Amino acid sequence: MKIKGIESDALNFILKVSESTAPLEFAGLLHADNGVITEVIVLPGTESSSCSAIMRLFMMPNIKSVGSVHSHPSPNIKPSKADLQMFSKTGSHHIIVGKPFDEKSWKCYDRNGYVQDLPVIDSEINNDEIV
Ligand code: ZN
């Protein structure tokens, strides 16, 4: 599936949850509808490292996702070695959020850990089109 972007509502949700979870890491999976990321499947009670928790979730047969999202409790949003390992196995789009969890403190990476463009799509404009 080609990903056109992420809905602003979904992104705002990610930023909010990341902020409220800090200094712990938040992790989840990205769900897309018609090529637009609209939903985040949050991992329940992540106690261990986020990456291994995501790996466990990907083993479940009935969860379809286009990639992952997780937060770093610091401003450093470069993927770690463990992140890269997880990226290569779990889809094409991977968002990392860092402090201070605003609209500029996140990046989307591809499965090789290279930054890729992920346009933010205004949810309201989307809804207007449906009406
Ligand atoms: Zn990480």
What are the bound molecules?
zinc ion
N-to-C terminal Cα separation, in Å?
25 Å
Instruction: Decide which structural class fits the backbone.
Output: alpha/beta
Tally of DSSP helical segments: 4
What letter string, H or E per element, gives the SSE order? EHEEHEHEEEH
**CATH class descriptor:** Alpha Beta
Can you summarize this structure?
With 131 residues, the protein is an alpha/beta fold. 31% of the residues lie in helices and 25% in strands. The chain has one domain: Cytidine Deaminase, domain 2 (3-Layer(aba) Sandwich), CATH 3.40.140.
Q: Would you give an account of this structure?
A:
β4, α3 and β5 (93-97) form a beta-alpha-beta unit. Helix content is 31%, strand content 25%. It is an alpha/beta fold and 131 residues long. The radius of gyration is 14 Å and the shape is globular. The structure holds zinc ion. The site of zinc ion has 6 residues, from loops.
What is this structure's SSE topology?
Layout: E1 5-7, H1 8-21, E2 27-33, E3 36-42, H2 50-58, E4 67-71, H3 81-89, E5 93-97, E6 106-109, E7 120-121, H4 123-130
Parallel strand pairs: 1-3, 1-7, 4-5
Antiparallel strand pairs: 2-3, 2-4, 5-6
The protein binds zinc ion.
Zinc ion (ZN) binds next to loops.
Please give a handful of descriptors for the protein shown.
131 residues; alpha/beta; binds zinc ion; Cytidine Deaminase, domain 2; single chain; globular
